[in-house]
Amino acid sequence: MQLNEMTDLFRQKAELVSAKVSEVGSLKEAYEYTVDLCEKKEACQLLVSGCEENLSPKAEALCETKPMARIIAAPGMRKSNFSEFKKLADERGIMLIESGLRKHLGGIDIGFTIADYAVAETGSVVLDSSSEDLRLATMVSEIHVAVVRKSTLRATTNALEAELKALMVKDGKAPSYLAFVTGASRTADIERVLALGVHGPLELHVLLWEDKK
């Protein structure tokens, strides 16, 4: 399957599960897209379940956590890339963080990741999520923005098998958590009514990046 065919198939499948797919020409464009998205949305007002109960002092302190600014979490980035991203965020009054996400469980607006791979047949993004901060960025944020390099797009999961095996022993150790993210978080467990954002982000934005010309 040619790259343009895989790209079209990925977009079709991802959008069927409520993902929003766009194309960017560079990582800088991806940062700008994310900062614009964060600036336009309402600040995250995530409430911790159970805060109305009698709680321990530590739990009460967590419930009182209010985001003082919009927050983008971008763990696992190269220092030079993070610095470029942070400059854009600072200009808009947005807090960009790369670690210590447990301190911000009261509200993360956007989790930003660069995918390891993507699968066209299912519209899935593949992430080595061994890092706790990366898991939190993709699970407790209101919006997940994932950059997919077109060079890492594969037609099927089977076509990705050999590369997944290589990923499993990257740096001499296997990842403890390999995630396949397909669309926004959803469930129909409650009276068979589809609800988004119950177990994770309300929105998934996939930015397809033509990283090889």
Automatic annotation (TrEMBL):
Pfam family, one: LUD_dom
InterPro entries in alphabetical order: FTHF_cligase-like_sf, LUD_dom, NagB/RpiA_transferase-like
LUD domain sequence ranges: 9-208
Highest taxon of source: Bacteria
Descriptive protein name: LUD domain-containing protein
